[in-house]
Amino acid sequence: xxxxxxxxxxxxxxxxxxxxxxxxxxxxxxxxxxxxxxxxxxxxxxxxxxxxxxxxxxxxxxxxxxxxxxxxxxxxxxxxxxxxxxxxxxxxxxxxxxxxxxxxxxxxxxxxxxxxxxxxxxxxxxxxxxxxxxxxxxxxxxxxxxxxxxxxxxxxxxxxxxxxxxxxxxxxxxxxxxxxxxxxxxxxxxxxxxxxxxxxxxxxxxxxxxxxxxxxxxx
Amino acid sequence: xxxxxxxxxxxxxxxxxxxxxxxxxxxxxxxxxxxxxxxxxxxxxxxxxxxxxxxxxxxxxxxxxxxxxxxxxxxxxxxxxxxxxxxxxxxxxxxxxxxxxxxxxxxxxxxxxxxxxxxxxxxxxxxxxxxxxxxxxxxxxxxxxxxxxxxxxxxxxx
Lengths: 219, 158
Description:
With about 220 residues, chain A is mainly α. Helices cover about 70% and strands about 0% of the residues of chain A.
Protein backbone atom coordinates (compact mmCIF):
# COMPACT_ATOMS: atom_id res chain seq x y z
CA UNK A 1 0.00 0.00 0.00
CA UNK A 2 2.68 2.46 1.07
CA UNK A 3 5.03 1.24 -1.64
CA UNK A 4 2.25 1.44 -4.24
CA UNK A 5 1.53 5.04 -3.32
CA UNK A 6 5.27 5.78 -3.33
CA UNK A 7 5.52 4.41 -6.86
CA UNK A 8 2.45 6.34 -7.98
CA UNK A 9 3.94 9.55 -6.65
CA UNK A 10 7.44 8.81 -7.98
CA UNK A 11 6.08 8.27 -11.48
CA UNK A 12 4.72 11.81 -11.34
CA UNK A 13 7.10 13.92 -9.27
CA UNK A 14 10.27 11.76 -9.22
CA UNK A 15 10.81 12.19 -5.51
CA UNK A 16 13.02 9.08 -5.23
CA UNK A 17 15.77 10.83 -7.18
CA UNK A 18 15.75 13.64 -4.61
CA UNK A 19 15.57 11.18 -1.73
CA UNK A 20 18.54 9.23 -3.07
CA UNK A 21 20.56 12.38 -3.71
CA UNK A 22 20.04 13.48 -0.12
CA UNK A 23 20.09 10.29 1.94
CA UNK A 24 21.73 7.63 -0.23
CA UNK A 25 24.61 9.72 -1.53
CA UNK A 26 28.15 8.38 -1.40
CA UNK A 27 30.25 9.68 1.47
CA UNK A 28 33.92 9.06 2.27
CA UNK A 29 34.93 7.17 5.40
CA UNK A 30 33.77 9.36 8.24
CA UNK A 31 33.66 9.33 12.04
CA UNK A 32 31.26 10.55 14.71
CA UNK A 33 32.54 14.12 14.51
CA UNK A 34 30.87 14.33 11.10
CA UNK A 35 27.46 14.20 12.81
CA UNK A 36 27.89 17.63 14.45
CA UNK A 37 26.35 19.42 11.47
CA UNK A 38 23.28 17.17 11.51
CA UNK A 39 23.07 17.64 15.28
CA UNK A 40 23.03 21.42 14.77
CA UNK A 41 20.28 21.03 12.16
CA UNK A 42 18.28 18.87 14.55
CA UNK A 43 18.47 21.51 17.28
CA UNK A 44 17.57 24.19 14.71
CA UNK A 45 14.36 22.29 13.93
CA UNK A 46 13.69 22.01 17.66
CA UNK A 47 14.16 25.78 18.02
CA UNK A 48 11.78 26.45 15.14
CA UNK A 49 9.02 24.19 16.50
CA UNK A 50 9.27 25.34 20.13
CA UNK A 51 9.73 28.96 19.02
CA UNK A 52 6.52 28.89 16.98
CA UNK A 53 4.71 27.37 19.95
CA UNK A 54 6.02 30.09 22.30
CA UNK A 55 4.61 32.85 20.07
CA UNK A 56 1.13 31.46 20.71
CA UNK A 57 1.23 33.01 24.21
CA UNK A 58 4.18 35.40 24.24
CA UNK A 59 3.45 39.11 23.82
CA UNK A 60 6.43 41.39 23.01
CA UNK A 61 5.47 44.54 24.91
CA UNK A 62 6.95 45.75 28.22
CA UNK A 63 3.63 45.47 30.06
CA UNK A 64 2.98 41.88 28.94
CA UNK A 65 6.31 40.23 28.05
CA UNK A 66 7.36 39.17 31.54
CA UNK A 67 3.87 38.14 32.64
CA UNK A 68 3.19 36.17 29.48
CA UNK A 69 6.48 34.29 29.91
CA UNK A 70 5.58 33.52 33.53
CA UNK A 71 2.16 32.38 32.34
CA UNK A 72 3.78 30.01 29.83
CA UNK A 73 6.18 28.63 32.43
CA UNK A 74 3.81 28.16 35.34
CA UNK A 75 0.28 27.83 33.98
CA UNK A 76 0.16 26.51 30.41
CA UNK A 77 0.18 22.70 30.11
CA UNK A 78 3.72 21.59 29.16
CA UNK A 79 4.67 25.26 28.90
CA UNK A 80 7.71 24.71 31.13
CA UNK A 81 8.80 21.96 28.73
CA UNK A 82 8.36 24.00 25.55
CA UNK A 83 10.15 27.02 27.02
CA UNK A 84 12.84 24.80 28.56
CA UNK A 85 13.52 23.10 25.22
CA UNK A 86 13.82 26.51 23.53
CA UNK A 87 16.00 27.93 26.31
CA UNK A 88 18.46 25.01 26.48
CA UNK A 89 18.24 24.41 22.77
CA UNK A 90 19.53 27.95 22.23
CA UNK A 91 22.72 27.21 24.16
CA UNK A 92 23.07 23.79 22.52
CA UNK A 93 22.74 25.43 19.11
CA UNK A 94 25.70 27.75 19.68
CA UNK A 95 27.84 25.00 21.21
CA UNK A 96 27.09 22.52 18.40
CA UNK A 97 27.61 25.07 15.63
CA UNK A 98 31.01 26.02 17.10
CA UNK A 99 32.03 22.36 17.52
CA UNK A 100 30.93 21.70 13.94
CA UNK A 101 33.09 24.61 12.80
CA UNK A 102 36.06 23.35 14.84
CA UNK A 103 35.77 19.95 13.16
CA UNK A 104 35.82 21.62 9.75
CA UNK A 105 38.86 23.70 10.73
CA UNK A 106 40.80 20.77 12.24
CA UNK A 107 40.10 18.57 9.20
CA UNK A 108 40.93 21.38 6.80
CA UNK A 109 37.55 20.72 5.20
CA UNK A 110 37.09 24.40 4.29
CA UNK A 111 39.69 24.18 1.48
CA UNK A 112 39.13 24.10 -2.29
CA UNK A 113 36.54 23.36 -3.63
CA UNK A 114 34.48 23.87 -0.46
CA UNK A 115 35.22 27.51 0.36
CA UNK A 116 31.66 28.62 -0.42
CA UNK A 117 30.24 25.97 1.90
CA UNK A 118 32.56 27.35 4.58
CA UNK A 119 31.53 30.98 3.97
CA UNK A 120 27.83 30.10 4.16
CA UNK A 121 28.62 28.33 7.43
CA UNK A 122 30.32 31.41 8.82
CA UNK A 123 27.24 33.48 8.01
CA UNK A 124 25.07 30.79 9.60
CA UNK A 125 27.10 31.10 12.81
CA UNK A 126 26.54 34.88 12.76
CA UNK A 127 22.80 34.30 12.36
CA UNK A 128 22.84 31.87 15.31
CA UNK A 129 24.64 34.47 17.46
CA UNK A 130 22.06 37.05 16.33
CA UNK A 131 19.32 34.67 17.49
CA UNK A 132 21.02 34.38 20.87
CA UNK A 133 21.41 38.13 21.27
CA UNK A 134 17.84 39.05 20.28
CA UNK A 135 16.22 36.11 22.08
CA UNK A 136 17.96 36.93 25.34
CA UNK A 137 15.96 40.15 25.72
CA UNK A 138 12.53 38.65 25.13
CA UNK A 139 11.74 37.34 28.66
CA UNK A 140 12.08 41.02 29.74
CA UNK A 141 13.37 40.24 33.21
CA UNK A 142 16.24 42.00 34.99
CA UNK A 143 18.89 39.76 33.46
CA UNK A 144 17.48 40.22 29.96
CA UNK A 145 17.18 43.98 30.35
CA UNK A 146 20.65 44.65 31.72
CA UNK A 147 22.36 42.15 29.43
CA UNK A 148 20.88 44.01 26.48
CA UNK A 149 21.79 47.41 27.92
CA UNK A 150 25.39 46.18 28.05
CA UNK A 151 25.24 44.34 24.72
CA UNK A 152 23.84 47.28 22.79
CA UNK A 153 26.38 49.60 24.44
CA UNK A 154 29.15 47.32 23.20
CA UNK A 155 27.60 47.63 19.73
CA UNK A 156 27.94 51.38 20.23
CA UNK A 157 31.69 51.38 20.88
CA UNK A 158 33.07 51.74 17.32
CA UNK A 159 34.40 55.27 16.69
CA UNK A 160 32.34 57.70 14.58
CA UNK A 161 29.43 55.38 13.74
CA UNK A 162 29.08 53.83 17.22
CA UNK A 163 26.42 56.18 18.51
CA UNK A 164 24.46 55.78 15.32
CA UNK A 165 24.58 51.96 15.56
CA UNK A 166 23.49 52.12 19.20
CA UNK A 167 20.43 54.20 18.30
CA UNK A 168 19.49 51.94 15.38
CA UNK A 169 19.78 48.77 17.49
CA UNK A 170 17.82 50.25 20.39
CA UNK A 171 15.34 52.09 18.20
CA UNK A 172 16.06 55.25 20.19
CA UNK A 173 18.37 56.45 22.91
CA UNK A 174 17.17 54.16 25.64
CA UNK A 175 16.15 50.53 25.87
CA UNK A 176 12.37 50.65 25.52
CA UNK A 177 9.21 49.10 24.12
CA UNK A 178 10.61 49.92 20.69
CA UNK A 179 13.74 47.87 21.43
CA UNK A 180 11.71 44.88 22.63
CA UNK A 181 9.42 44.98 19.59
CA UNK A 182 12.27 45.18 17.09
CA UNK A 183 14.27 42.46 18.82
CA UNK A 184 11.17 40.27 18.65
CA UNK A 185 10.60 41.07 14.98
CA UNK A 186 14.22 40.29 14.14
CA UNK A 187 14.14 37.13 16.26
CA UNK A 188 10.98 35.63 14.72
CA UNK A 189 11.01 36.99 11.14
CA UNK A 190 14.34 38.30 9.90
CA UNK A 191 16.69 35.72 11.40
CA UNK A 192 14.51 32.64 10.74
CA UNK A 193 14.22 33.66 7.09
CA UNK A 194 18.00 34.13 6.90
CA UNK A 195 18.62 30.85 8.72
CA UNK A 196 16.27 28.90 6.44
CA UNK A 197 17.77 30.29 3.22
CA UNK A 198 21.38 29.91 4.35
CA UNK A 199 20.74 26.40 5.69
CA UNK A 200 19.21 25.30 2.38
CA UNK A 201 22.18 26.79 0.50
CA UNK A 202 24.65 25.19 2.92
CA UNK A 203 22.98 21.76 2.60
CA UNK A 204 22.76 22.08 -1.17
CA UNK A 205 26.52 22.64 -1.30
CA UNK A 206 27.23 19.80 1.14
CA UNK A 207 25.23 17.43 -1.07
CA UNK A 208 26.29 18.84 -4.45
CA UNK A 209 30.04 19.12 -3.80
CA UNK A 210 30.18 16.32 -1.26
CA UNK A 211 32.14 16.25 1.97
CA UNK A 212 35.86 15.73 2.38
CA UNK A 213 37.38 12.63 3.94
CA UNK A 214 39.25 12.92 7.21
CA UNK A 215 42.86 13.87 6.43
CA UNK A 216 45.43 11.08 6.65
CA UNK A 217 49.01 11.17 7.89
CA UNK A 218 50.40 10.99 4.32
CA UNK A 219 48.83 14.26 3.17
CA UNK B 1 10.43 -7.57 4.39
CA UNK B 2 8.20 -10.58 5.20
CA UNK B 3 10.46 -13.28 3.73
CA UNK B 4 13.76 -11.45 3.55
CA UNK B 5 16.09 -11.43 6.50
CA UNK B 6 16.52 -7.99 8.00
CA UNK B 7 19.98 -6.86 6.94
CA UNK B 8 22.14 -4.25 8.65
CA UNK B 9 21.05 -1.49 6.30
CA UNK B 10 17.39 -2.33 6.73
CA UNK B 11 17.74 -2.49 10.50
CA UNK B 12 19.47 0.89 10.75
CA UNK B 13 16.88 2.40 8.42
CA UNK B 14 14.09 1.04 10.58
CA UNK B 15 15.86 2.27 13.74
CA UNK B 16 16.17 5.77 12.28
CA UNK B 17 12.44 5.92 11.52
CA UNK B 18 11.59 4.49 14.95
CA UNK B 19 13.71 7.05 16.82
CA UNK B 20 12.37 9.83 14.60
CA UNK B 21 8.81 8.74 15.28
CA UNK B 22 9.45 8.54 19.00
CA UNK B 23 10.97 12.02 19.11
CA UNK B 24 8.10 13.45 17.06
CA UNK B 25 5.59 11.93 19.47
CA UNK B 26 7.58 13.19 22.46
CA UNK B 27 7.36 16.67 20.95
CA UNK B 28 3.89 16.39 19.42
CA UNK B 29 1.91 15.29 22.46
CA UNK B 30 3.12 18.12 24.76
CA UNK B 31 2.64 20.55 21.86
CA UNK B 32 -1.03 19.61 21.57
CA UNK B 33 -1.50 19.87 25.35
CA UNK B 34 0.26 23.24 25.24
CA UNK B 35 -2.00 24.67 22.56
CA UNK B 36 -5.25 23.19 23.87
CA UNK B 37 -4.61 23.46 27.65
CA UNK B 38 -5.68 27.02 28.49
CA UNK B 39 -8.70 26.74 26.18
CA UNK B 40 -10.16 24.05 28.42
CA UNK B 41 -9.57 25.93 31.66
CA UNK B 42 -12.39 27.99 33.09
CA UNK B 43 -11.38 31.51 34.06
CA UNK B 44 -14.31 31.72 36.45
CA UNK B 45 -13.64 30.78 40.02
CA UNK B 46 -16.66 30.84 42.28
CA UNK B 47 -16.27 32.80 45.49
CA UNK B 48 -18.52 34.02 48.25
CA UNK B 49 -18.74 37.74 47.56
CA UNK B 50 -19.89 40.09 50.34
CA UNK B 51 -22.84 42.22 49.23
CA UNK B 52 -23.43 44.18 52.43
CA UNK B 53 -25.21 44.24 55.74
CA UNK B 54 -28.59 42.49 55.70
CA UNK B 55 -30.14 45.35 57.65
CA UNK B 56 -29.59 47.70 54.73
CA UNK B 57 -31.65 45.63 52.36
CA UNK B 58 -35.09 46.99 51.69
CA UNK B 59 -37.90 44.56 52.42
CA UNK B 60 -40.28 43.63 49.61
CA UNK B 61 -38.49 45.43 46.77
CA UNK B 62 -35.79 43.91 44.58
CA UNK B 63 -32.76 46.14 45.00
CA UNK B 64 -29.80 46.18 42.68
CA UNK B 65 -26.40 45.60 44.28
CA UNK B 66 -23.17 45.87 42.37
CA UNK B 67 -20.09 43.97 43.49
CA UNK B 68 -16.58 43.76 42.16
CA UNK B 69 -15.03 40.42 41.15
CA UNK B 70 -11.60 39.56 39.90
CA UNK B 71 -11.39 37.97 36.46
CA UNK B 72 -8.24 36.33 35.19
CA UNK B 73 -7.70 35.91 31.46
CA UNK B 74 -4.30 34.37 30.75
CA UNK B 75 -1.86 36.58 32.65
CA UNK B 76 -4.16 39.59 32.81
CA UNK B 77 -6.15 40.12 35.99
CA UNK B 78 -8.96 42.61 35.69
CA UNK B 79 -11.77 43.78 37.92
CA UNK B 80 -15.26 43.27 36.69
CA UNK B 81 -18.58 44.29 38.12
CA UNK B 82 -21.42 41.90 38.55
CA UNK B 83 -24.87 43.04 39.57
CA UNK B 84 -27.63 41.19 41.40
CA UNK B 85 -31.14 42.09 42.46
CA UNK B 86 -31.57 41.12 46.09
CA UNK B 87 -35.08 40.43 47.30
CA UNK B 88 -36.25 39.67 50.82
CA UNK B 89 -39.70 39.59 52.30
CA UNK B 90 -38.68 39.09 55.94
CA UNK B 91 -34.99 40.06 56.21
CA UNK B 92 -34.13 36.43 56.97
CA UNK B 93 -34.56 34.69 53.62
CA UNK B 94 -32.93 36.26 50.63
CA UNK B 95 -32.92 35.59 46.94
CA UNK B 96 -30.30 37.03 44.59
CA UNK B 97 -31.19 37.29 40.92
CA UNK B 98 -28.88 38.07 38.06
CA UNK B 99 -29.85 41.23 36.17
CA UNK B 100 -28.98 39.52 32.88
CA UNK B 101 -32.00 38.67 30.75
CA UNK B 102 -32.10 34.95 29.94
CA UNK B 103 -33.10 35.70 26.35
CA UNK B 104 -30.03 37.38 24.83
CA UNK B 105 -28.18 38.92 27.74
CA UNK B 106 -29.54 42.46 27.99
CA UNK B 107 -29.70 44.00 31.45
CA UNK B 108 -33.14 44.02 33.07
CA UNK B 109 -34.58 46.95 35.07
CA UNK B 110 -37.00 46.89 37.99
CA UNK B 111 -40.12 48.89 37.18
CA UNK B 112 -41.61 49.76 40.57
CA UNK B 113 -45.05 50.88 39.33
CA UNK B 114 -45.64 47.59 37.54
CA UNK B 115 -43.79 45.46 40.13
CA UNK B 116 -42.01 43.74 37.23
CA UNK B 117 -38.58 43.40 35.65
CA UNK B 118 -38.39 44.64 32.09
CA UNK B 119 -35.74 43.78 29.55
CA UNK B 120 -35.59 46.68 27.08
CA UNK B 121 -34.25 44.74 24.11
CA UNK B 122 -37.14 42.43 23.20
CA UNK B 123 -39.71 43.26 25.85
CA UNK B 124 -39.03 40.32 28.10
CA UNK B 125 -41.02 40.71 31.31
CA UNK B 126 -40.31 38.93 34.62
CA UNK B 127 -42.21 39.10 37.89
CA UNK B 128 -40.77 40.04 41.26
CA UNK B 129 -39.26 36.58 41.73
CA UNK B 130 -37.75 36.43 38.27
CA UNK B 131 -40.38 34.18 36.66
CA UNK B 132 -41.15 34.90 33.02
CA UNK B 133 -44.40 36.82 32.58
CA UNK B 134 -44.26 37.49 28.87
CA UNK B 135 -41.89 37.89 25.98
CA UNK B 136 -39.15 35.68 24.56
CA UNK B 137 -37.04 34.73 27.66
CA UNK B 138 -36.79 30.91 27.80
CA UNK B 139 -36.36 30.61 31.58
CA UNK B 140 -36.58 32.64 34.80
CA UNK B 141 -33.76 34.99 35.79
CA UNK B 142 -30.70 33.08 37.00
CA UNK B 143 -30.17 33.04 40.74
CA UNK B 144 -27.00 33.24 42.78
CA UNK B 145 -26.68 31.00 45.85
CA UNK B 146 -26.81 33.16 48.98
CA UNK B 147 -25.73 32.85 52.57
CA UNK B 148 -25.86 35.08 55.64
CA UNK B 149 -23.01 35.22 58.11
CA UNK B 150 -22.86 37.70 61.02
CA UNK B 151 -25.62 39.76 59.42
CA UNK B 152 -23.60 40.01 56.24
CA UNK B 153 -25.11 38.80 52.99
CA UNK B 154 -22.91 36.87 50.56
CA UNK B 155 -23.59 35.64 47.04
CA UNK B 156 -21.69 32.88 45.31
CA UNK B 157 -20.37 34.07 41.99
CA UNK B 158 -17.34 35.01 39.99
